[in-house]
Design goal:
acetylation; Beta-lactamase; Glutaminase; 13 helices; binds 6-diazenyl-5-OXO-L-norleucine; 3-stranded antiparallel beta sheet; single chain; 5-stranded antiparallel beta sheet; glutaminase activity; about 325 residues; alpha+beta
Length: about 325
């Protein structure tokens, strides 16, 4: 009897002290060692890509920095690699802008003047507007500039709302803009300015150029890979924060966002990406990629060396192996 009790207490102690794990896909347990192995396996592939330098300040990123983070079904975040490395969120901010624009205006209004299309064009394609002047989707620059213009408020208020939402989702009040990158974006953003004025020409945007600065500001928000995996978790779990807070729970909206991520989140690479990774995802030229496993986990990877589509090359390779290892793809 005494022996049985002590065996039971050892077993209970073992269960409680074992690092928490999650079971996904085909009942395999996600292991931090596998995450680290994938970082080490792919980290040298940065030599095959290129750090973005069309915004000069972005070109200063360390091409060797690699980080990988997941926020699991219990809302716990596990990270490996250079997980404290800060970088700018760039196009991943388009998800938050879409979130706020739809919350404030409704999906119908937002998509009256914008399409749900995929595209074979890159993110900054100047003519990515259909014959009525409508942007193809909210993931490419033109659509994102339009989306941000729909968020109510004067001067930088729309940007402040985006920042506040990112701080809420990550529960990280320290997140802020990188002012040097913002100035660099603004000084070199001629293509974006061109798209802005094209949409103004079609009567889609009433506000003046100051509203475009909010797009540059949102792209210049500095985060790390852990913040990103919490954002991915939030979207995957229909607006439930990693700690269970449901202030912004909105299933319809998160379904819309994930549908757009799957269709256009990786730009002209989205189709092939849906075949190889099969998870709603969004990249940014800062080197981050987020991926959602719907109703389960949030995933984020970081390395600033990009492929020809503007997506993190090392990040893609890590994601591809990880998704295959745990059968995480939605198909
Ligand atoms: O508008 C731009 O060019 C950048 N601020 C954001 C582009 C971006 O991140 C594209 N994603 N891969």
């Amino acid at each position: 009897m005494y022996k049985t009790i002590s065996f039971l207490s050892i077993a209970i102690f073992y269960i409680l002290s074992t690092p928490s794990t999650i079971v996904c896909g085909q009942n395999k347990i996600i292991d931090k060692k596998v995450m680290l192995h994938l970082v080490n396996k792919h980290k040298l592939a940065f030599t095959q890509g290129k750090v973005a330098d069309y915004i000069p300040e972005l070109g200063k990123a360390n091409p060797k920095a690699v980080a990988f983070s997941i926020t699991n079904e219990n809302g716990e975040t596990w990270s490996v690699g250079d997980n404290k490395q800060k970088f700018t969120i760039q196009s991943i901010s388009k998800l938050i802008a879409l979130m706020l624009a739809v919350e404030e205006n409704g999906e119908e209004k937002v998509f009256t003047q914008m399409g749900y299309y995929g595209t074979h064009h890159p993110f900054n394609y100047f003519a990515n507007l259909d014959h009525n002047g409508r942007p193809l989707n909210p993931m490419m620059n033109a659509g994102a500039i339009y989306t941000t213009s729909l968020i109510a408020g004067d001067a930088d208020e729309p940007y402040q709302k985006i920042l506040a939402r990112i701080r809420y989702i990550t529960n990280n009040p320290k997140i802020d803009i990188n002012p040097t990158i913002y100035e660099s974006e603004k000084a070199t953003g001629y293509r974006n300015r061109g798209m802005f004025y094209l949409m103004k020409n079609y009567g889609m945007i009433e506000k003046e150029e100051e509203v475009l600065n909010n797009y540059f500001r949102q792209c210049s928000i500095e985060i790390d890979v852990e913040d990103l995996s919490k954002i991915a978790y939030f979207i995957a779990n229909q607006g439930t924060r990693y700690d269970g807070d449901k202030t912004h729970y909105n299933k319809e909206l998160m379904q819309l966002i994930q549908a757009q991520m799957l269709t256009a989140g990786m730009y002209e690479f989205s189709g092939e990406y849906a075949r190889t990774i099969a998870l709603p995802s969004k990249s940014g030229v800062g080197g981050g990629i987020i991926a959602t496993v719907p109703n389960k986990i949030g995933i984020a990877v970081y390395n600033p060396s990009l492929d020809e589509h503007g997506n993190s090359l090392v990040g893609y390779l890590i994601l591809k192996d990880f998704v295959q290892e745990y059968s995480l793809g939605i198909f």
